[in-house]
Design brief:
Largest sheet: 6 strands, parallel
Low-confidence stretches: 194-199
Number of helices: 6
Shape: elongated
Binding site for ATP: 9-16, 87-90
Helix content: 25-40%
Catalytic activity: thymidine + ATP = dTMP + ADP + H(+)
CATH architecture of the domain at 4-142: 3-Layer(aba) Sandwich
Mean pLDDT: 85
Radius of gyration: 18 Å
Number of strands: 10
Strand order of the largest sheet: 5-2-6-7-1-8
GO biological process, one term: thymidine metabolic process
Keywords: ATP-binding, Cytoplasm, DNA synthesis, Kinase, Metal-binding, Nucleotide-binding, Transferase, Zinc
Strand content: 15-25%
Organism: Thioclava atlantica
Length: 199
Amino acid sequence: MAKLYFHYSTMNAGKSTILLQASHNYIERGMQTLLVTARLDDRAGAGRIASRIGIGAEAASFDVETDMFEMIKSKLDAGPCACIFVDEAQFLTEEQVWQLARAVDDLHVPVMCYGLRVDFQGKLFPGSAALLALADEMREVRTICHCGKKATMVVRMGPDGQALRDGDQVQIGGNETYVSLCRRHWRAAMGEDLAETGR
């Protein structure tokens, strides 16, 4: 039975690597997949998903105007497709997540979404919030903080090397911009006095 999956994590946890490997597994068995990524994140090139370890693949792209249901339906109308893979799923709108859920329910194709859960201020992205509400299955992709604990948060670094507390929710960047931390070290980086608050 087809399901909507949400694989979530913080930055640099290997989400794109896992996505590309999962798609490769289908292709190796003679099945077709559809890869989709956010148009605004073109660090790997337009319409391309790439991993920090050097693997990549061409992908369709979406922006806020894209009808995800129609994109998937067109792919299926053109021929069999075993699975849909969506990278940078935090950039989906709530409506687009519903469109993906419809594709699962009505077109009977599994959809695997990979994305960040929270932004640098610890707030849910709209796409991630909708996926947390609607996904049939959720899986955490884990990475670690510099202290060795599980990283669940991310800080955005300014030019001076200090964590930024304000700014737009979306700013494309990689290791030069973002650092994944456990909650305690995120709080410290954001300027909370841990001794004063007793947390």
